[in-house]
Design brief:
The protein has 166 residues and is of the alpha/beta class. It has 6 helices and 5 strands, in the order βαβαβαβαβαα. It is 45% helix and 20% strand. A 5-stranded parallel beta sheet has the order 3-2-1-4-5, with helices on both faces.
Length: 166
């Protein structure tokens, strides 16, 4: 019997409780879940690539069937190269669905043997995004309801450094 490998990809800049909820739920559904952090040389991230990997590693250490990896280029090609059968995508709103469905169709056209599974966010995370977390944290707001503790601490350090350098 083969393992059913699912990939949950994103920038995770930073990882939120919404991301973590989807990771946990996917981990309960599939044999292996690979959290794939995309390397996008043209995209300016708040946290460095290594910081995002480190934060994800820290907040997922309790999940035995989850591992962190990275990829360059197209996600569908990465999935094919590691033998993944599924791509997991989270949906917060109808607008997410329209965008994600377009990507899922393109991926299915390129590699038909890999399916996309959509998981709706839990109600309490429906409005949470990494950009919202960064925005609140940038003004000294409490993001502990939206991000895991290591992320909250990293945001305080990062924004403290930004303010000190200003």
């Amino acid at each position: 019997m083969r393992d059913l490998i699912a990939v949950y990809a994103g920038s995770f800049d930073p990882v939120t409780l919404g991301h973590l909820d989807l990771i946990e739920r996917a981990g309960n559904l599939f044999d292996q879940v690979i959290i794939a952090v995309g390397r996008h040389p043209t995209k300016k991230a708040f946290f460095s690539f290594q910081e995002r990997i480190d934060l994800l590693t820290e907040v997922t250490k309790g999940f035995s069937n989850v591992r962190i990896d990275s990829f360059d280029g197209l996600l569908i090609q990465y999935c094919e190269s590691i033998g993944a059968r599924l791509i997991v995508r989270g949906l917060r709103a109808v607008t997410d669905f329209e965008y994600e469905l377009q990507i899922a169709h393109a991926n299915a056209d390129m590699v038909p043997k890999i399916d996309t599974i959509f998981l709706p966010t839990r109600t309490q995370y429906g409005f949470v995004s990494a950009s919202l977390v960064r925005e609140i944290a940038s003004h000294g707001g409490d993001v502990s309801h939206y991000a895991p503790k290591p992320v909250c601490e990293a945001l305080k350090v990062k924004f403290g450094a930004v303010k000190a350098g200003a």
